[in-house]
Amino acid sequence: MLLLQNLEVVYSDVIWVLRGVSMEVPERGMVCLLGSNGAGKSTTLKAVSGVLRIELGKVTGGHIEFEGRRIDGMKAQDIAEAGIIQCFEGRRLFEHLTTEENLKMGGYPLPTKAETRKRLDMVYTYFPKLTELKHRISGYLSGGEQQMLVIGRALMAKPKVMLLDEPSLGLSPMLVSQIFKIVKNINQEEGIGILLVEQNTRAALAITTYGYVMENGRTVLEGSSEKLKDNEDVREFYLGLTRVGERKSFRDAKHYKRRKRWLA
Amino acid sequence: MDVLIQAILDGICVGAIYGLGAMGLVVIQKSSGVFNMAQGMLMMFGAYIAAMGALSIGMPLWLSVVTAMLLSALLGLTINFIVMRPLAGESVFTQLMATIGLLSALYGIIMAIWGTYPYVYPNEIIPTGNIEIGDIMVSATYLNGFLLAVAACIGLSLFYQYSKEGIAMRGTSEDEELAGSVGIRVTKVLRLSWILGSACAALAGVLFGSLGSVNYMLGEIGLTAIIPVVVFGGLESFVGALMAGLIVGVVTMIAGAYLEVALPGIMPVVPLVIMLIVLIFKPYGLFGEERIERI
Question: Looking at domain A2-83+159-253, does it have CATH number 3.30.830.10?
Answer without folding.
Answer: no
